[in-house]
Amino acid sequence: MRQTAEGRVISGGHFSGSDPTDDPQGLAAELFGRVKAMFRTERDGVPLPPLELDFYTIGYRPDPKDGHPILGDSGRPGLTLAVMHSGEGPGTRPFFSGTV
What we know:
By secondary structure, the chain is α+β, with helices and mostly antiparallel strands. It has helices at 24-36, 92-99, and strands spanning 2-3, 9-10, 42-43, 46-47, 70-73, 80-83.
């Protein structure tokens, strides 16, 4: 979970190589419930405005089943692939972009 410069709170789930869901709205509601549970509902006895779900997206992202990056030739001239999840760590992007 993180907050953007605009003030939005962004959170996500992980499906690591599996099908995310047949019920995207239910999954979004479940995740939003977990996010809301992390925030106060009042401050110094004064109720805070409730959090509102702005939007959700559910889909597939490049995350190999074994969790290891996929690097190498694509089979097309001039196209090399580097498939990994952004959570691989801040040190990996510069390394892989320089390597590939």
